[in-house]
Amino acid sequence: MNRTRYLEHFLSLYKRSNFTDNLPTLEILKDEYIRYLLELTAFDILETARILDISPEILRKRLNRLEIGNQSFRIH
Prior knowledge:
The protein has four helices and no strands. α3 (about 45-50) crosses α4. With about 80 residues, the chain is mainly α. It has one domain. About 10% of the residues are buried.
């Protein structure tokens, strides 16, 4: 799956009985997109930060908030 189809993919997984009343918040979309990119890049922090156009330090802070463990990360 390429990056341009992410939102379509995420929304297809985000099924609820009354979908229009339960759309994901922007924060949920951001967090899920970060997780998606980490999987896409094989948990490469530098590549994920580059795609997001943020510093690796900012990404690490976000990951700490999301409680995603550091043991899976790769750094070039």
